[in-house]
Each structure stands twice: as structure tokens, then as C-alpha cells.
Amino acid sequence: MSNTIYIGYYFKVEPLQPATEILIAELGYAGFESFVETETGVTAYIQKEEWHKEILQNIYVLTSNEFKISYTFDEIEQVNWNSEWEKNFNPIIVDNLCSVRAPFHEKPDTKYDIIIEPKMSFGTGHHETTHMMIQHIIANDFKGKSVLDMGCGTAVLAILAEMKGANPIDAIDIDNWCYLNSIENAERNNCKNISVYEGDASLIENKTYDTIIANINRNILLNDIKTYANCLNPKGSLFLSGFYKTDINSIEEACNKNGLTLKNKLNRNNWVALHFEI
Q1: What average pLDDT does the segment 246-261 reach?
Q2: Are the CB atoms for 169 and 204 separated by under 8 Å?
Q3: Thinking of the domain 128-277, which architecture would CATH place it in?
Q4: 62-111 pLDDT, tens per residue?
């Protein structure tokens, strides 16, 4: 990767939230692969070969009257990803029960302590959805449950599921960096029951699970909800996040059509995490 050329975009965002979270989600869907949150907004990186002049054309938050977002961009020969995230990645503490931290952070006094190295995987920009999904996992029984973490990113949710007694666990992501990073993080946390795969929902068509976790985005979820429902065991649970309050109706409608009933809902700064049962 040392010779890969990147385009760096430097966004100034006012007010910072929830605009920064929305911007990161939309940029990720457009092909940007790494993000660093700053005091004034966010820096986003995309490989030059994936870049085109209209790359921001469908980034709707840029046209919102609610936020003021400006940006500049330039070409970067090399990016020291580890240095970038080490400077900006702060520990996450959820309800004083679960911590998500880097190896160089001091160990907090929490029941569940997860150590990750996010590198180029999504890890610093999606705290709202990750936070809520962690809350869902903490609040529900995972002991002896078979679990799928779809769109696993850093595998933090799969790791927490194992800490809560889940076995076996599949963690799947379509992105190669996420796939490799998930393997590394599972090993770092001494996980024995997590199998990591590179791919999409087609990998699970002949499998079944007691619980499926999917923290992705609205469009992918709507496309794959039928597959998730078909792969759930009787009385199985489906946890979904990666979308906004305004998307709840379309997500719930798709789930209802596939025999899923909404049981619980969490929200943080316009982001939502829903718990369905079949």
C-alpha cells in the first residue's frame, strides 16, 4: 500500500453533530475508505483510482440548510494510517459496562474490555451506531447463541458477543481491510469462536443463526433483510443500525413483510438501532 496515491478531503462542519456522523456515513457509501474526525470537522481519504470529479454529487448533507459544510482537497502520496488514528482514536465507554480502546490506552474498570486497532476499518467515525449496538448486546442474552455480525468492520460487536457467551460466531465484511482487521482484533482479544469471512450476504444463504447483527447502511439493509429473516432460527433476533430516525418506517416495513416484529428501539443524535424478533 506504500505506493498507493490518495485524495484527501478536509471538511469544516458547523455544527459538528450530527452533521459529521451523517457526512462520514454518506462518504463511506460513496467510496471513501478512511476518516479522521478533527476539532473542526472530518478528514476523509479515497484512493485516487476510485476518485472522480463527481464523487460528492450524491452527498446530500452538503446541500442541507441545517449545516454549513466547506472543504478543500489535495493529492497525498502516502498516509501513515496508524499514526492518524492513534492521534484521534479515543476510548469508548458504554454505560460504564463496556470499553472499546486501543492497546496504548489505560485499562478501564469495565466488565467488558475490548481492545482494537481500527487502522483503515471503520472504528472512529461511527460511535453512535456502535454505541447503541453495544447497548443492545449488553441488554440481551447471548449465552450459547449462534451469531452473525454482518458488515463487521473492526469486529467489535462479534468480540462482545463472544464475551457474552455466544458460540459460534460468523463475522463478515465485504471490505478486505475490514476482513483482515477483524481477524487481527479477534486474535488480540483471545476470541476462540469467531470465524471471519470476506464477502456479502450471499455467504449466509445456506446458514442459520439465533442472532444476526447488522450495522451497515439503509440501502444495504433494505436489500438484505429478506436474507437475514430466512437465516434466523425460530424466535431469533435481528439487530439493525447504520441509519437515521427518518428511515425507521421503511426498515420496519421491510422487516414486517418478512415476519419480523420490532421489540426495542434506541436512538442517539438522529441515529437509530432497532431490535426485531422473528
Answers
A1: 96
A2: no
A3: 3-Layer(aba) Sandwich (3.40)
A4: 998 989 999 999 988 666 656 666 666 778 889 999 999 988 888 999 99
Residues ≥6 apart with Cβ < 8 Å to 113: 98, 99, 101, 107
Q: What is the pLDDT of residues 141-177, one digit of tens each?
A: 999 999 999 999 889 999 999 999 999 999 999 888 8
DSSP assignment string, the chain: -TT--EEEEEEEEES-TTHHHHHHHHHHHHT--EEEE-SSEEEEEEEGGG--TTTTTT-GGGG-TT-EEEEEEEEES---HHHHHHHH---EEETTTEEEE-TTSPPPS-SEEEE---TTSS-SS-HHHHHHHHHHHHHS--TT--EEEET-TT-HHHHHHHHTT--SEEEEESSHHHHHHHHHHHHHTT-SSEEEEES-GGGGTT--EEEEEEES-HHHHHHHHHHHHHTEEEEEEEEEEEEEGGGHHHHHHHHHHTT-EEEEEEEETTEEEEEEE-
Q: Where in the chain is the domain with CATH 3.30.70?
A: 6-79
Q: Where in the chain is the domain with CATH 3.40.50.150?
A: 128-277
> Listing from the earlier edge strand, what are the strands of the sheet with 112-115?
92-94, 98-101, 112-115
CATH 3.30.70 applies to domain 6-79: yes
Distance CA 213, CA 202 (A): 16
